[in-house]
Amino acid sequence: MPLTSNLTTNKHLLGWVEEMAALCQPDSVVFCDGSEAETKRLTEYAVSKGILIPLNQEKHPGSYLHRSNPNDVARVEHLTFICTPTKDEAGPTNNWMAPADAYLKLRGLFEGSMKGRTMYVVPYVMGPLGSEHSKIGIELTDSVYVTLNMGIMTRMGKPALDMLADSNEFNRGLHCTGDVNPERRYICHFPQDNTIWSFGSGYGGNALLGKKCLALRIGSYLGRDEGWLAEHMLILGVEDPDGNKTYVAAAFPSACGKTNFAMMIPPKRFAGWRVYTVGDDIAWLRVGEDGRLWAVNPEAGYFGVAPGTNMKSNPNAMKTIAKNTIFTNVAVTKNGEVWWEGLDGEVPEELTDWKGQPWKKGSTEKAAHPNSRFTAPAANNPILSAHVNDPRGVPISAVIFGGRRSNTIPLVMQSFNWAHGVYLGSTMASETTAAATGATGVVRRDPMAMLPFTGYNVADYFAHWLKMQKAVPYPPKIFMVNWFRKGTDGKFLWPGYGDNMRVLKWIIDRAHGKVGAQETLFGWVPKQGHIDLSGLEIAPEIVDAATHIDDNEWKIELESQKTFFDQFGERMPRTLELIRQQLLSRLS
Ligand code: OXD
Ligand code: MN
């Protein structure tokens, strides 16, 4: 008998679900409607199976803990593939598999993989409901944890099916947790088919297919073809005391403080200033009818890094995760409260660690995994922008690129023009973090913070960025920041967090042509006195060190950029290499 559902009559959808169910052979197929009653039912089921552990419901209403398999705690870049028809289309920075080989290999893994399990059909929308720019995805998954997370992170359920109606235009995502064996773990993208197959991991970035897989990898590919940009950027709005609002989008690599920046509280000196969050991780940027670049956050929740989140680093995040939140791989107190390294207050004497083992204060092991996470609804955010559901998004006045660099890159710098801004983004580098498996603290090039998320050849992605200049009559100004520069004592020079507002103010004033700057070889930097330091205890020499440009460091930097560019061969846009050469010759 053909598959039916009381939620949809879409033949393309039903036919595909039937085909995938025949492959995976689940015991049952459940279409998700995204209702509260469904969330309750699935949560109760997850609790009964030990997949979710109820937290202290007085302290954490509606919130649960999930412990993943200890071998499955981060994105697996070495097991993530872009399966375009040719290897060149994926480029040298992506792992590539021929589509036919990938389908064959994964078919073998998916075959019978859901026996004894339920296949959840999770319809979702990335972007505001009803917007012509939003994208619809259907994720088939055997994981109730993934289903519940998708319910927080996306506009999930019946509204997505209603929006899809009878159309065949939706992303086809197939996910199975399998036996969580890293030897049988593959995250494969087929951008030309608008398809994602993910096997063997239950971790966020590998398994919540709307996020990195659709909104960034497939999104960037669609963006190139359709003339827009899918970027690893937060979006925030700043309102000055006169009520003027300015929106900026900022790209930082994973676990470099995007969520903190997006939810920032300005320091006391900025009385009357307000910051609003539009998004904390992903921005879809399109040219508006007015010729400006407009940004939409395709997500509906935050999948943030828990360690280091506290009332100083991010009070708004602490409020956002106060209820209806799923915590993954954090530690828990005897009283059923969550705990992680860097949380406010005393370190408890005893905890249960992220693996469920007893933990004692002073232990050399971390109690929470460094990449432990919270999944929280954006609606909980006290400073959520009123425009998050606006189909047009918000107009962007400044784009900011930032990496985690102990040296070389100054606190802030403005590009001379669009092409130079693209050059700054394309040469971004950062010290690696726990968000992906592998060594942490190693400097690697991470252009536009998109290295792990570009669904096609990065050289073509640079060309697309350069081409966008012609499409945007009133482009945003482009900046580079580095909150992470260290002094000779190994300590951070800039206090960061809320004080980043001081740098942001200069950026906004520059975007509106309201403040001057000093020209250097590498870009415009603030003159002494431009960054408002009132109320901040910081010696002027320290600020000088944070903003200093060291010719020797830059020589090394420019040479290492060449190695990065060279790997793209003939495909690399000449413009960017010419800018690099020009800087080098002026430096010499
Ligand atoms: C994320 C990441 O989870 O970038 O946002 O890894
Ligand atoms: Mn991210």
Write the layout of secondary structure elements.
Blueprint: H1 11-24, E1 28-31, H2 36-48, E2 53-54, E3 64-66, E4 80-82, H3 87-90, E5 95-96, H4 99-110, E6 118-126, E7 135-141, H5 144-153, E8 155-156, H6 158-164, E9 171-176, E10 186-190, E11 195-199, H7 204-207, H8 210-226, E12 229-231, E13 233-239, E14 245-251, H9 258-262, E15 274-279, E16 283-287, E17 293-296, E18 301-305, H10 315-320, E19 326-328, E20 331-332, E21 338-339, E22 350-352, E23 358-360, E24 373-377, E25 394-402, E26 412-414, H11 418-426, E27 429-431, E28 443-445, H12 458-471, E29 477-481, H13 500-511, E30 518-519, E31 524-525, H14 540-547, H15 551-566, H16 574-587
Textual characterization of the structure:
- Helix content is 28%, strand content 22%.
- It is of the alpha/beta class and 588 residues long.
- The strands form 7 sheets. Strands 1, 4, 5, 6, 7, 8, 9, 10 and 11 form a 9-stranded mixed beta sheet that branches.
- The termini are far apart.
- Bound molecules: oxalic acid and manganese (II) ion.
- Residues 232, 254, 281 line the site of manganese (II) ion.
- Manganese (II) ion (MN) binds next to loops.
Query: What overall form do the CA principal axes indicate?
Result: globular
How would you classify the quaternary structure?
Answer: single chain
Radius of gyration: 23 Å
Assigned CATH architecture of the largest domain: Alpha-Beta Complex
Beta percentage is 15-25%
Give the class-level CATH name of the largest domain: Alpha Beta
Estimate percent helicity. Answer: 25-40%
Unique ligands: oxalic acid, manganese (II) ion
Quantity of strands, as a count: 31
Q: What's the overall average pLDDT, rounded? A: 96
